[in-house]
Design brief:
Helices cover 24% and strands 35% of the residues. The chain is an alpha+beta fold. It folds into 4 domains: 10-153, no CATH class; 164-290, Beta Barrel (OB fold (Dihydrolipoamide Acetyltransferase, E2P)); 296-426, no CATH class; 431-572, no CATH class. The strands form 3 sheets. An 8-stranded antiparallel β-barrel has the order 20-21-22-26-27-28-29-30. The chain is globular.
């Protein structure tokens, strides 16, 4: 959607209209308490949420129609004034657990696009649907708008607050997200400060970017800077409800209440209706990086990816990370016989689409050379014949002391050769059977400030069955408990019999402590049990609910007590 100039407040006008019209809704409390009417409002917003998730998936798949599709979505939600409806529902969700989170809707919609063999056609069809009667929200949910107005009038939710419009003609320079590091180098960085202090420290600034949000954090908005398949990592976080502007490019005026190399917080903001008098800041811009290619764009059907004859070795290195918790981190790479190395290993080698990956994510490729012995044969024996291209030294043996050289986003060498600590691993013999439970645990946070501990377990049985289970526990730390007598905790558990979650705690008040506990049971566990197969570098899990996973897998050591599965190693329980 082009930069808003002559018509700056189309979406914001809907918010103002709703807040004013709320006074004319008859019998607001009766309508606001009508379950069927409220359901229409929720379903209207659900349609918007699912449309946005699908749009995001289309952008991730790199379809040619992504840009005009975004414009069509923005126009559709503006035509039906969906932004103010969504703002009302967001406030309902904050006040009541009876309105569930929309995250349960977003992932299935994304997966439908990501798994579609013809995503371009599916995305173009949705863009056409937004123009058709099938997506006419006013006809599909005729009571949705009236219910939103009634909820506001009945004081069940606060009215949406419109973004202020800067009335004066703007003069000066605007800042882009890519210029945040240069601004930080020039002015220093600071943690959260008040708007008054921000005004004294830096004064009013102008910023420009497209309004976006994370799919799993729907009320956190920020400005992004993108160009084709490139983007910058820096973000301008918006400290106001920017729902009406999602998907649009805007210019804003505000003050900076937090600043570091990666982001700034913009508060006391106003929309610049007439940015014609602004020019781009001369500050240096951070380089634009390639957007991460989703897995579906660089994978292919089993057996049609990297051929076994072209794979020299799979290598791994792991070490503890104590930054912000305790976790074991591993780096797995594929070494190819042509002397290239692939750094992303979320799939088994036989599903890596080498040609697509080299084109879409060259920064994940590099060069490698061996400085010692390398064991790459399926049986763990030395490979006869001359070493493959890129390999220096003896070919054959149990270790892989390697040197590697990375590439940049354009496939050019990036830096010098570096010695790596990785060691080569062996594939699973065909139809390997394991017995026992293998577990991986992590802890993030701290005992003082609070944190989250979690564990994942995969139990293998000799008869070919498996069961996955997980557990998680989060809690406030000793600081909150000591200062204000507050303890909040939550737990979740799932296995082959089902899953459940519990949350609750106590909060200190001037009149003592108040507490509450809630629990919820879900599913029957069919999505966590089934049959398994281990062969080569592949773990295949066929679940009782009908879905299948194919994961990268191998024994990390020869004793089979540490097994790599999917994205990390699990250790045999003692």
């Amino acid at each position: 959607m082009p930069l808003i100039a002559a018509r700056p407040a189309l979406a914001a006008a809907a918010v103002l209209l709703m807040a004013g019209a709320a006074q004319s809704v008859p019998d607001a409390r009766s309508l606001a308490s009508d379950p069927a009417a409220v359901q229409q409002l929720v379903e209207a917003v659900s349609l918007d949420v699912m449309s946005e998730a699908t749009l995001g998936a289309c952008e991730d798949m790199g379809v040619a129609s992504a840009a005009p599709m975004r414009d069509a979505w923005v126009a559709w939600r503006e035509r039906h004034q969906l932004a103010p409806l969504r703002m009302v529902v967001a406030r309902m969700q904050q006040r009541s657990s009876s309105i569930p989170s929309f995250t349960r809707l977003t992932e299935p919609m994304r997966q439908r696009v990501l798994d579609d063999p013809s995503p371009e056609q599916a995305c173009a069809a949705l863009a056409r649907d937004w123009q058709s009667p099938a997506m006419d929200v006013s006809t599909l949910y005729p009571q949705a708008r009236a219910v939103a107005l009634a909820l506001v009038k009945a004081n069940l939710v606060a009215p949406p607050s419109p973004l202020a419009i800067a009335p004066e003609a703007a003069r000066g320079q605007f800042l882009l997200p890519s210029q945040i590091p240069a601004l930080t180098a020039q002015r220093g960085h600071w943690l959260v400060i008040s708007e008054e202090e921000a005004q004294r420290k830096l004064g009013v600034i102008y910023v420009k970017g497209r309004v976006a949000r994370e799919i799993d954090r729907p009320t956190h908005f920020f400005l992004v800077q993108q160009q084709g398949d490139r983007h910058v990592e820096q973000r301008i976080h918006l400290k106001f409800d920017a729902e009406p502007w999602v998907g649009r490019e805007v210019v804003l005026r505000g003050v900076v209440t937090s600043l570091n190399d990666n982001s700034l917080d913009l508060a006391d903001a106003a929309l610049v209706a007439n940015p014609a008098g602004l020019t781009s800041s001369p500050l240096p811009q951070a380089p634009m990086l390639r957007r991460r290619a989703v897995l579906q764009r660089v994978t292919t059907l089993p057996g049609r990816g990297l051929a076994e004859k072209d794979l020299a070795a799979v290598v791994i290195h792991g070490e503890s990370n104590f930054n912000g918790g305790t976790r074991w981190e591993e780096d797995v790479r594929f070494l190819l016989r042509d002397g290239t190395v692939y750094h992303r290993t979320e799939m088994p080698p036989d599903q890596l689409n080498v040609a697509a990956s080299r084109q879409l994510e060259p920064q994940r490729w590099g060069r490698w050379r061996a400085s010692g012995k390398v064991d790459v044969s399926p049986q763990g024996r030395a490979v006869p014949g001359p070493p493959p291209e890129g390999v220096k030294g003896t070919w054959g043996g149990p270790t892989c002391p390697c040197e590697m050289q990375p590439q940049d986003d354009d496939g050019r060498p990036a830096g010098a050769w570096q010695a790596e600590k990785h060691h080569a691993v062996r594939p699973w013999p065909k139809d390997t059977r394991l017995e026992g439970s293998f577990t991986r645990g992590t802890f993030t946070g701290s005992l003082v400030l609070g944190g989250r501990s979690s564990s994942t377990t995969l139990r293998f049985m000799r008869d070919g069955r498996f069961e996955r289970s997980y557990s998680a526990l989060s809690s406030t730390g000793t600081l909150a408990a000591t200062l204000n007598n507050t303890v909040i905790a939550g737990s979740a558990h799932g296995d082959g019999k089902g899953s459940s979650s519990t949350g609750g705690g106590t909060v200190g008040t001037p009149f003592g402590t108040a507490g509450a506990v809630s629990s919820r049971k879900q599913d029957d566990g069919a999505g966590r049990r089934g049959r398994y197969q281990l062969s080569g570098f592949v773990l295949t899990l066929d679940y009782d609910d009908g879905h299948q996973e194919r994961l990268l897998s191998f024994p990390v050591h020869d004793d089979n007590k540490t097994v790599y599965m999917g994205s990390g190693s699990l250790v045999l329980d003692k």
